[in-house]
Design brief:
It contains 9 helices and 10 strands. It is an alpha+beta fold and about 290 residues long. The chain has 2 domains: about 70 residues, Phosphorylase Kinase, domain 1 (2-Layer Sandwich), CATH 3.30.200; about 160 residues, Nucleotidyltransferase, domain 5. The strands form 2 sheets. Strands 1, 2, 3, 4 and 5 form a 5-stranded antiparallel beta sheet that branches. The chain has a 5-stranded mixed beta sheet with strand order 8-7-6-9-10, with helices on both faces. A hairpin with a 2-residue loop joins strand 4 and strand 5. Helix 4 packs across helix 7.
Length: about 290
Amino acid sequence: KIQDYYKSLSKNDFSCSHITKKQYHFEFTVQKNKYNFKVLVYFGKKGVKTVIQGNNELKEYHEIDSIISGKLILPYNDEDIFYDEYIGTDETGKGDYFGPLVICGFYLNNNSQPFLQNIGVRDSKELTDPQIEIIASKIRKEFPNNYSIVEIRPEKYNQLYESFGNLNKLLDWGHSKVIENLLEKYPTKNVIIDKFSKTKISISQKMNYNNINFIQLTKAERYIGVAAASILARSTMNRWFSKMKLEGFNLHKGASAEVENDAKMIVQNLGGDNLYKFVKQHFKTTKKIFEN
């Protein structure tokens, strides 16, 4: 465990001394911005106990604490604030011509945090699809009530997109929905949203939620609760692609030339009128397919 702390702090621009073994514990010194701290790890009958020595009023102290506790899984910056519990939300699929748009919210507290850290939860973009599925399955099994997912499959997506008029309004609706679902079960005061728009999320304007702190951040996946949401969202989208493969449609993600060819095959085999069941029609790709 102390090796994990050492590696995590080193990755986050801390200078770390060699790990030293003492009579009852292991320790190493940590330095950043000319400030020195000491990390001590005790192994006893009651388990592992970690102590950080240093000025706890400094930003660097809280950075060390957040990295060791797993509250933060990417480099700290001045925006970062730490909460014992919050709802984190993220989405996937908005840049993919094929497949659903998936929005997920995850409720995190001090009980769920260590488990997520131990199973390797981090930004889903850093994980392979098999890794996503393994971690997502563990989250679903351990915390079946801690998450809410809105999966908008292509046919429904196209209807909603036409109704809302643009993607940001649709994302706003999806994020608001999962947040509301979780707030009914977990009345936390903090919600961290992976930022998708410059405007405030509409749920934050509702009177019954005016006591809740809604935080919209870019790269919010550095928070482990948001990262868990991103993994569950990706897993849900991947399962749609797997289902399509079983039905004989080996479709690609993104919006590449390969994707265009896949769409042309669908039009050729099923007719243009059925394409909307597989794709997000407002993409420029649709126009290209029917022009050629």
